[in-house]
Amino acid sequence: MQAIILAGGTGVRLRPYTTILPKPLMPIGEKAILEIVLMQLKAAGFKELVFTVGYLAELIEAYFGDGSKWKVKIKYSREKKPLGTVGPLTLIKGLAPNFLVMNGDVLCDLDYADLMCKHSRERNEVTICSYARKVKIDLGVLDFKQGQLKDYIEKPEYSFQVSMGIYGINRSMIKQMPKGKRKDLPNLVREQIKEGGKIGVYNFSGIWYDIGRIEDYQMAQNEFHDHYARFMGKKKKGEIT
Asked: What are phi and psi of 40, to 5 degrees?
């Protein structure tokens, strides 16, 4: 199986840490985030990894090399300018018919092989991993109509299904895109929905951190050793609907 790792971002939300270190090399425990992801993908059966790089690319390339240290094959695709989340895929030669795409700053215990099985089995153009994320509003929320208050909710908490930054993608989606042009996945998905394309969802209920958020990065640091076995694939938790 083939996996594309988006590792070219500047990590604005983690500054000043990312001023000298690319976000995928930020440490979690004793390893870089991307090294943990690499080990997870290898355990799930992925043989070829492609890193799309841009910002501080030379540091990522120096750290991982050709992947022989981990007994996987690593290729690199360099962006001369930021191309978004799917634009970089148009520069990659030899895409598999179906392949995994994920952000290089995601840490979770997702069963990646199961995701790709669902994606291929259902013949989706795109399959998006979904996670229920709670968001707390640290303000009093007013519910009113025509100037009359109906309710006053102090610091409510809401739950939303959010994209995890992990996707199964069919090669046909990339072939129809202009090469080297900036494009983000939400735009591609909305276009496919309008055209009647098959966009699947893989619901996940395990552990997920968006390391690009300083709050998640701190939580991952604090809880990494508690969940190490699950991150390394000894215990998986996922749900398909």
From this structure: -65, -45
CATH of 2-132+163-231, one of 3.90.550.10, 1.20.5.440, 2.170.130.10, 3.30.830.10: 3.90.550.10
* pLDDT per residue as tens digits for the range 88-103: 999 999 999 999 999 9
For residues 17 and 64, give the distance between their C-alpha atoms in angstroms, rounded to a whole number: 20
H helices of the chain, where?
33-43, 57-64, 112-121, 171-175, 185-194, 214-223, 228-231
Give yes or no for a contact between 7 and 104, defined as CB atoms under 8 angstroms apart: yes
Per-domain residue ranges of the chain = 2-132+163-231
CB 23 within 8 A of CB 104: yes
Q: What is the pLDDT of residues 202-219, one digit of tens each?
A: 999 988 988 778 788 788
Please state the rounded mean pLDDT for residues 101-108.
91
Distance CA 173, CA 170 (A): 6
| Separation CA 186–CA 232 (nearest Å) | 30
Query: Cβ of 134: how many Cβ atoms within 10 Å?
Result: 8
| Section 159-186 average pLDDT | 91
CB distance 91 to 11 below 8 Å: no
Q: For the chain, how long is the longest CA-to-CA vector? A: 67
Identity at 66, one-letter amino acid code = D
Asked if residue 156 has a cis previous peptide bond (ω within 30° of 0), the answer is no
Q: Residue 32 is which amino acid?
A: A
Q: Would you state the pLDDT for residue 241? A: 33
